[in-house]
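sanity check this:
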Amino acid sequence: MSTGNQEYIRDMNRALVLEAIANHPPLSRADLAKMLHLTKATVSTIVQELLDRQLVIELGSAEKTSMGRKPILLTFNNRCGSIIAVDLGVKKITILTGDLKGKSCTVKEYPIDPSLSLEEYLISLLHKTKSDLPKTPCGLVGISIGIYGVVCDDLVLFTPYYDLKHSNLKNYLEEEFQVPVIVENEANLSVIGEAACAEHFKNMIFLNIHEGVGMGILIDGELYTGQNGYAGEFGHTILFPDGRPCPCGNHGCLEQYISEASVLNDFAAAEGLENVSVERFIQYYQEGNPNALKVMQDFTHYIGISLNTVLHTFNPDVIVINSSFTNYIPGLIDEITSGIQNRLRWYLHVLPAHLQDVSVLMGGISLCSRNFLGISTFKLLDL
C-alpha cells in the first residue's frame, strides 16, 4: 500500500474515532473497536494521539468486565479550544464566545456604529472579544459570521440591508486574525444550529423572521444552498405582484409583509406612531388593540400561505419558525397551521425555534467545531 493511501486511511480512522467519542461519550477503547470495526491496536494508537492533542480526556474506570478488568472511559474535551460566533445583524452585532460544544458561552450585543464601516467595527469588536478569551490548549480555533444576505462558498454576493466593502469577508478576516473563518447566510446557520442542538430531523425547514425573512434548508441531514447560494431566499418570493417595493429590486416580496420590521411599521402607521418596539406591540396585541389584532391576523394569514408553499415544495419532517411573534404569543403557531386547508395539512409539523435568537450563533459553533476537528457530524448541547 502506498504511503498516501496509508495516510488517508489513518486520517479517516482518526476522524471516525474522534466523531464517535464526541457524539457518544463515554466510551472505552474496547467500545470504540467494537463500534467502528477497528483493531484494538489501531484504536489505542489513535486515542493516544487524541490524548496528546488534548482533544480527548480520560474520565476514569467503568465497571469491571467479565475479564475482571476495569476499562478506562474516554470523553471529548470540549474545552480544548474556543470559538467566536457572530450574528451580523441589521441593527446590532451579536457575538457569542464558547467552547467547541457550545457550552461555557458568553453573549454580548453591540449596536451598529454608523461612524465606522461595518468591517472596521467588526474587526475592533473581534479583537476585543479575542483578548478576553480564556486560555485553552488549542486557543481560538475558528470564527463564524452570520450574514443577512446571499453567501456562496464564503463569498458575500448580496446584502439588502447593509453594505459590505469586502465581499470576500472570509479572506479579509483570516488575514487579520490568522484563524479559519466561516461566512454563511444566517438562516443556513440557524438550521444547522437547531439540528445540532434541539431538533434532530434529517429534513428540516427553518424560517427565520426578523428584519427580513430567511429560510434554511436541511435535506437528508445536509445543508442545501442551491447552485450559487440563492436557495432559501424565501423572503424574496412574490406574494403580491406589483406590491410593495423591496431592496432586492422586485415588488411584493413576502418579507415586505411578514418580516418583523414590516409588521411593526404597519401597526405604527395604523396607530399614528413614529415607531414601536416588538415588546410594546405584543403588549398592544395582548390588550386587544384592534389595529394590533388586524396586523397579526394578516401576519398569520400570509405565514399560512408561505407554509403551504413550503409543505408542497419540500414535504419536510418539520418546519421550525423563529419569530418574536411566534416565540412570545402563545397559541400563534396553532392559529397559523389551522388556517391551512389541504390534504397535506396532516403531514405539517410546525414548531417554534428552541434556540430562538442564538440559533445563528450555535450554527456557527457547530460549523467551526466540525471544521477544526475534521468530522462531519457533531452534536452540541441537547435542549
Remarks:
- The two ends are 46 Å apart (CA to CA).
- The longest helix spans residues 290-314.
- The chain has a mean pLDDT of 90.
